[in-house]
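Before going further, learn to read the protein records used in this course. A complete example follows; check for yourself that the lines match position by position.
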Amino acid sequence: MNFGERKRWAPSVRTVLIFALVCSCTSASWASALLDEMNAQYKREYGIEIVADHESYPITGTGGSIDAVNTGVNNGDMVLYFLRKEFAKYPPELLRRAGVKRIVLCKELKKQSTRIAGIAVEQTGSIYVDSTTKIGDESHRRRTLHHELFHFIDYALGDVMHRPIWEAVNKGGPAYGSPAPPPKSGPRNWASHPALGFVSDYSLTALPEDRAELFAALMTNNLTLRLLVQRDFNLATKVKILKDELVQFCPQADDAFWARMSAF
């Protein structure tokens, strides 16, 4: 290549670099626009901030250590669309009364070194959500979000470890902490119904988890649950208790609200 050819080539390289830089900045602007839009909406309607960066890890609390990596403001669009769809189900007043202050988007989310899709930290009003698709399928991630949100609702309702009416339904059945029975044959179903009154294996672990699992099933309009309550009186009773508590906590969580859930 002679000198003249090099002169003609050099401006082309600069043009490509400038074009790449412009595209990068424009892409970042588009990617963060949804976060800005949703943050403004969620702060206004729910009093919730969405955090995607500058969170310090690990977090150590009474429930053990939580570790993760920040999603970053330009990498969370997928989970933001997912959040917007699921949060749209709730009356704004219910979310405000629940006391959630922050939704923290992260990657590689772990509790005690175990990968998880989400976790509630009531002490700071935060729900940590893994923004990747590496943990479970979409149904699992949807249930996790509603499960963790319910922990805040439950906390606002009172003593999460003592619900006498609820516990009375379990009388004669397995105690919390009991191991789940062996898996049933055939395809695995999250709504495994390990015992009367329990929708999933994880429901057996503790009272707050039992309630959160049932709430998550209701909020995702789980077909198996809809069939189970027709033949499991204990489970149907728990559904009624939960709905009665919620409408007392927030009048907008009424029959019309649950009818809308059945349409999702």
